Amino acid sequence: MFTGIVEEIGVVKSVQIRQSVRTIEIEAHKITADMHIGDSISVNGACLTVIDFNQTSFTVQVIKGTENKTYLADVKRQSEVNLERAMSGNGRFGGHFVLGHVDELGTISKINETANSKIISIKTTKNILNQMVKQGSITVDGVSLTVFDLHDYTFDIHLIPETRRSTILSSKKVGDKVHLESDVLFKYVENIMNQNQSQLTEEKLRAFGF
């Protein structure tokens, strides 16, 4: 379980491919302080397992199934990545519930930037757009963000200065891919409502504050 609050920007040191398994070594300093073999790390929103580490870097592996749902096959040496450790039991919950399971790939279709703001439009499928609500939560490359606006085929996010400073989203360009994970709580509600025997209605959800 993650929160979508990026702890550190890492830098890819090496990428090796053997027998369809991609091994990625990532330079990091903050999150390696209490790292262990087998730890789960969110790398641009994808939950990966630590197989080796030292004081300045750690290594993860990406299998074919993960590659097919992400753009991790395109990550190269010197690429920057958003990093977050799994949430500790006594940690403060600053973002929202993030599983690290990428639902869809989005494509940046427009960037509107001024001195004080940066609004990014992301094109994605109807499937994930239907799991969003305006002012709701969405994870983009591992970053917990608020849905600023919704359109027929795109949605907008608004990057505040701190998000631009502490994540890789500020360096994204039009045409770049991003990992998307919709709010897991919305998925549970959607699943319950889709069950024929469910007595949960849209009116009841509104009454409960959803």
Task: Give helix % range.
Answer: 10-25%
Instruction: Tally the beta strands.
Output: 12
Arrangement of strands in the largest sheet? 1-2-5-4-3-6
Q: End-to-end distance, in Å? A: 22 Å
Key traits:
single chain; 210 residues; alpha+beta; six-stranded antiparallel β-barrel; six-stranded antiparallel barrel; 5 helices; 12 strands; 39% strand
Chart the SSEs and their pairings:
Layout: E1 8-18, E2 21-27, E3 40-43, E4 46-53, E5 57-62, H1 64-69, E6 80-85, E7 104-113, E8 118-123, H2 126-129, E9 137-140, E10 143-150, E11 154-159, H3 161-166, E12 177-182, H4 184-194, H5 202-207
Antiparallel strand pairs: 1-2, 1-6, 2-5, 3-4, 3-6, 4-5, 7-8, 7-12, 8-11, 9-10, 9-12, 10-11
Describe the structure.
This protein is α+β, with helices and mostly antiparallel strands and 210 residues long. Helix content is 16%, strand content 39%. The protein has 5 helices and 12 strands. Strands 1-2-5-4-3-6 form a 6-stranded antiparallel barrel. The protein has a 6-stranded antiparallel beta barrel with strand order 7-8-11-10-9-12. The longest helix has 11 residues, at 184-194. The chain is globular and about 55 Å long. The protein starts with 7 loop residues before the first strand and ends with a helix. The mean pLDDT is 90.
Outline of the structure:
With about 210 residues, the protein is α+β, with helices and mostly antiparallel strands.
